[in-house]
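Response to reviewer comment R2.3. The reviewers asked that we include at least one raw input/output pair. We reproduce the pair for ABC transporter substrate-binding protein here without editing.
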Amino acid sequence: MVDRMRRREFITHFVAAAAISLCPAYAEKGVLNLGFDSAEKSTELLAAFREGLRTLGFVDNQNVAIEYAFAEGQYDRFPELVATLVKNNVRVIVAATGTNGVLATTAATKTIPIVFAIAMDPVSVGVVSSLNRPGGNATGVSMYTPQLVAKRLELLAELTPAGGTIAMLINPTNPNADVISSDAEAAAKSLGRQLYVLRASTDQKIATAFDEIRDRKYVALLVSPDAFYIARREQLAALCEQNRIPAIYEWSLFVKMAGL
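Raw output as returned:
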């Protein structure tokens, strides 16, 4: 099934199924009220989530009502957005993308069931107590694959001049930033390549980072997995094309935006 379906869509289908499973008795009575918070308003993500619900017999605006909360890549908005979902007494909250959003959601309520999708080890960031026995009111799926950072760097190393420096773009406001950069630096060292980490958490800082990439003649760019960058994929793809910088990303969404 995963071979026929993009990884992100498969995960979103799984999250939809998990959300329904947390309140089966209520779901049978009438309209089920779900909360859905995400760092971005992604057409693909929403379509996959709704399709996952539909396969279980739940159709938006018929027997399920979904209250959406999108941070649009601005992590500081999550506490307020999630507080609104809690105030409106949704039955389940789906925290779809981003460690920041998941942490804000678990901090906001200890009673409403939460289903999360997180690109980090949920135990290390304090979302659950253990993988086998999550405890509390949160459960979900982890997409933490640090070994893929090494693989992406390996691909860039094969495609670029041996002596060239590879740049990595990372969001410093991401709670996982230090872990991600450490994993990447270790992978670069094992490959015998120089890696320079650039930190950007705003549109302007992204533009400044690309100025540095161009001026220092870095040979390629590794974009770290981050919901903020997914929300800015059009800007990133355009800057890569404008500066003729080959780049590698976590998701195929960037390639759809003509990312190199």
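The longest strand covers residues 32-38. The CA atoms of residues 129 and 135 lie 6 Å apart. Further pairs are available on request from the corresponding author.
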